[in-house]
Amino acid sequence: MMTIPSIDNVALEQFVRKNIRELKPYRSARHDFESGILLDANENPLGSVVPFDSAALNRYPDPFQKTLRSRLAELTGVQTENVFVGVGSDEAIDLLIRIFCEPGQDSIIIAAPTYGMYRVAADIQGIEVRTCLLTEEFQLDLNALRSTADARTKLVFCCSPNNPTANLLKREDILELCKTTNSIVVVDEAYIDFAEAVSLAPLVKEVPNLVVLRTLSKAWGLAGIRLGYAIAHPTVVSYLLSVKAPYNVNTLTSTFALKALEQPEMMQNFVRTIISERERLLRELPKVRLVERVYPSQANFILVRCREAKTLYRELARRGIIVRDRSSEPMLENCLRITVGTREQNNLLLTTLSELAA
Ligand code: PMP
Description:
11 strands; binds 4'-deoxy-4'-aminopyridoxal-5'-phosphate
């Protein structure tokens, strides 16, 4: 049995910005009544210009997204009150910063190199970003993280599998961080479906300062509908619900998300295919002369160190193959991040790389 960290429910409240604790959230009549003769929200009673078979688009969506949240809760082994749904996990990142961090006073820590939006969301709010480099094995440096944090560090962002390094962070390190830091630890699991690992999500029931981010944008193939979710202590979820825009997740998105969640086997098929292509690329890429190092991957992309990343990036783009240049990031000199494509796309990538190497 895990020891409960020092942050309990009461302490969680104290982490929240004063103005957010005192916020009177927007309420519409729809927060109290879902059905009846709906003359409360100035909607169009006649229908919508473009009708949609599955749902009435002339009506505002459920502000609390109860059906979708309860389905996601079932799938992740938590309760509905542990789940927040947003416009991509990017919305949850932004809202967490807005709930916990006082502009000009508080800070976040990012375990870098990592996903860029944590910094952008903090910069937008005027929140200091402290960078704590991963170890050479791209794992959390617990001592460095603890010494980088101070009393005004509200959030620590870590990403597992990490974008762009593609490796999983050690589960015991993340839990140790939760236990020993006086901050909320946000673990971004956008790529967890591609990894040989169990999600940390169910642990939010025992670890109040853990927030896990997930998304339908990757394995589920639904980046276009913009649906991400956060799994957290009910206190954190209730603040997320009170600061979000009232109807953040639209009816088309939630209908498609619910349809997708009925077909997890299809997602699993995608994952199997992508993993098998990833493993093939992991075998083939090291044979290309321009490639100096191929890092292991537990995600749907591969980090590759090559001879001259910027030139290679441009040459690939000239031939119609767009990858991500990560060479300006700390620890990632000459590194490109390559998303695993279809078999044909990967073949083309490999032949193009060989031609460029010739
Ligand atoms: N987290 C990570 C680590 C990502 O790489 C991305 C997207 N590239 C996101 C979150 C954003 O996901 P979403 O589409 O759910 O906003």
